[in-house]
Design goal:
Blueprint: H1 14-27, H2 35-42, H3 46-58, E1 62-64, E2 72-74, H4 76-84, H5 90-106, E3 109-116, E4 119-126, E5 141-143, H6 148-155, H7 159-167, H8 181-191, E6 196-200, E7 207-215, E8 221-230, H9 236-260
Antiparallel strand pairs: 1-2, 3-4, 3-8, 4-5, 6-7, 7-8
Length: about 260
């Protein structure tokens, strides 16, 4: 595992520097670290470490494991803040022409969704204007457990986010919506090894979706490209074409993201 470099800046706020070191150390060990290990790794006195951890835990930036020995992991507040961070400003600009081309190629609506807190947010939509189509609106928010595209994104989120969703009451929108925590956990374990997924009737009866993740530099997850369509009457060949089209388009957007990322 690659260890994060420790800050070397001459900060006038040593407590802040120490807190950042602690968060970075915890983040580099997803299973968690003990307070003793954190003291050793960050050269922090034991009393100081416990004071910092107590404040971070109160605000949801770290959490303790349920099973002993007690380990500290990143908390859901960090993931929620990450969801509020500005997206690369060129993501929608780069995606829009690719999305429009895909929409007309397959004759279906295409949207770009990103994770925002515990929801998926629609950032862009490409619409064919055809009468028989699924309509999507900018700014639509959907809980991350509802629908295959949302679950694909959720499967690739930090463990604290997944745990928080599994601990909450899961909203049910159709008979196919996964609301059983154990079933959802199993689905996420499968999807975390995938970059694409396809399903139907989980958020709206009769509506299908094919989704592929979009990534930037250093394999960073940016969002997902999703084709939505009326599932009824579609042939296996059509469904395959939707999936392959979305995969190719998402890979094109990802390649542009990587090529435009600054090099160090």
């Amino acid at each position: 595992m690659v260890r994060q470099d420790k800050p070397t800046s001459d900060s006038s706020a040593p407590a802040v520097e120490r807190t950042i070191q602690i968060l970075r150390s915890i983040g580099s060990h997803p299973p968690g670290l003990s307070a003793q290990a954190l003291c050793s790794e960050t050269s922090t006195p034991r009393a100081t470490m416990y004071r910092i951890l107590k404040v971070l835990q109160q605000h949801g930036f770290v959490q303790q494991t349920a099973e002993p020995p007690t380990l500290y992991q990143l908390g859901p507040a960090l993931a929620q803040l990450g969801g509020m961070a500005p997206r690369p400003r060129d993501l929608v600009e780069l995606a829009r022409p690719v999305m429009q081309r895909l929409a007309f190629s397959i004759g279906e609506t295409v949207k770009l969704v990103v994770v925002d807190g515990l929801e998926a947010l629609t950032l862009a939509v490409a619409d064919t204007g055809l009468e028989a189509r699924v309509m999507s609106r900018l700014g639509t928010r959907v809980p991350l457990h509802i629908g295959v595209s949302q679950r694909l994104l959720l499967a690739h989120q930090p463990t604290p986010v997944i745990r928080q969703i599994l601990a909450e009451k899961l909203e049910k929108r159709t008979s196919r919506t996964i609301t059983n925590p154990a079933a959802l956990r199993a689905s996420l374990e499968s999807l975390c090894r995938a970059e694409s997924a396809q399903g139907q009737s989980e958020g709206t009866d009769g509506v299908g979706a094919a989704a592929t993740l979009i990534r930037g530099s250093q394999d960073r997850l940016l969002g997902a490209l999703v084709a939505v369509y009326i599932h009824t009457g579609k042939t296996a060949a059509q469904l395959t074409a939707f999936r392959l089209g979305v995969e190719q388009a998402a890979q094109e957007i990802s390649s542009w993201q990587v090529s435009l990322s600054p090099t160090r």
